[in-house]
Design goal:
Length: 116
């Protein structure tokens, strides 16, 4: 889901480190990482991670896996289209670790890369 966002950021001159459970999905979207741990290590502090996953358990699991890897002052941007009540709950839970949480539901559709 985040491939075109990463490509758009790269096209604008940003450096991106990327992770996907499907390694083929990271082929041209930035510096590919083999694990979430590697992804977090690659980013300079304070880190900003943009999570692009379908709403539901996969997002919950990713956030649970990332939370102990992040440090106070880091920011997690959740770009899926989750229920806002889930985002409120996540923001409160991450705030307990001084981790910032931003809910940014993204739907780029077919033209998302070119038109934003």
């Amino acid at each position: 889901m985040g491939g075109n966002i990463a490509r758009r950021l790269i096209d604008a001159g940003h450096e991106c480190a990327v992770f996907d459970a499907n390694a083929e999905a990271t082929a041209d979207g930035g510096e590919a990482c083999d694990s979430l741990e590697m992804l977090v290590e690659k980013l300079p502090a304070p880190r900003t991670l943009w999570l692009m996953l379908p709403a539901g358990q996969i997002t919950e699991d990713a956030i649970a896996s990332l939370t102990p890897l992040l440090a106070p002052g880091d920011t997690l941007v959740e770009g899926g289209n989750a229920m806002f009540k889930d985002d409120v709950r996540r923001a409160k839970a991450l705030a307990e670790h001084d981790i910032h949480y931003i809910d940014v539901g993204v739907s780029g559709g077919v033209w998302g890369r070119e038109r934003g």
